[in-house]
């Protein structure tokens, strides 16, 4: 992220996007939890009340999340240290680096203490990331021969 012009605050803020979502064994292989209730963590079962509105329904059950309320965008990702270790949540070495590295730790703690500070930094960083755009190549695009098309 440094090569893209991000500073430490922006890098830590973007990492906070992990407050949303899950990882699946079948997709990334980084967790043991997979598709469906049988392979879900205690927070990702179809019966878990994770929606902001308190209603039932989580889409597809399963996987493992970084936060217990993985459908709510807030600063709970940064409150990992305050909550204590929870084997039903993901915490990778890259997440750990955010509260162990002295430069990142300042922002990790700031965001744990203030949802508003996290939201403000995240907005700036996400805008900057979005404005980086995409580099599609080759410049002239590509095409497939008509014979290769199944349409």
Describe the model.
Helices cover about 30% and strands about 5% of the residues. The protein is built from five helices and two strands; from the N terminus they run αββαααα. The protein has a two-stranded antiparallel sheet. The N and C termini lie far apart (about 40 Å). About 25% of the residues are buried.
Strands of the biggest beta sheet: in what spatial order? 1-2
Going by helix content, strand content and strand pairing, the class is mainly alpha
Any low-confidence stretches, pLDDT <50, length ≥5?
none
Beta-strand portion reads: under 5%
Kindly provide the radius of gyration, computed on alpha-carbon positions and rounded to a whole number of angstroms: 19 Å
Q: Order of SSEs, N→C?
A: HEEHHHH
Number of strands: 2
Helical run tally: 5
Please estimate the helix content: 25-40%
Global geometry: globular
Describe the largest sheet.
2 strands, antiparallel
The first-to-last residue Cα distance is: 41 Å
Average residue-wise pLDDT: 88
Key attributes of the depicted protein:
single chain, 151 residues, mainly alpha, two-stranded antiparallel ribbon
Briefly, what is this?
The protein has 151 residues and is mainly α. It is built from 5 helices and 2 strands; from the N terminus they run αββαααα. The longest helix is centred in the last third of the chain and has 17 residues.
Question: Which secondary structure elements does this structure contain, and how are they paired or packed?
Answer:
Elements: H1 8-15, E1 22-23, E2 64-65, H2 80-83, H3 93-100, H4 102-113, H5 115-131
Antiparallel strand pairs: 1-2
Helix pairs in contact: 1-4, 1-5, 3-4, 4-5
């Amino acid at each position: 992220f440094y090569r893209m012009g991000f500073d430490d605050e922006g890098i830590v803020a973007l990492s906070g996007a992990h407050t949303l979502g899950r990882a699946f064994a079948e997709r990334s292989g980084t967790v043991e939890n997979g598709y469906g209730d049988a392979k879900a963590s205690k927070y990702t079962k179809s019966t878990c009340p994770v929606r902001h509105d308190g209603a039932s329904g989580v889409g597809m059950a399963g996987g493992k999340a970084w936060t217990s309320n993985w459908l709510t965008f807030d600063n709970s990702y940064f409150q990992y240290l305050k909550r204590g270790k929870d084997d039903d949540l993901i915490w990778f070495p890259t997440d750990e680096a955010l509260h162990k590295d002295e430069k990142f730790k300042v922002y990790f703690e700031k965001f744990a203490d203030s949802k508003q500070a996290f939201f403000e930094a995240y907005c700036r960083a996400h805008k900057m990331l979005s404005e980086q755009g995409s580099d599609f190549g080759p410049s002239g695009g590509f095409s497939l021969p008509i014979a290769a098309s199944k349409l």
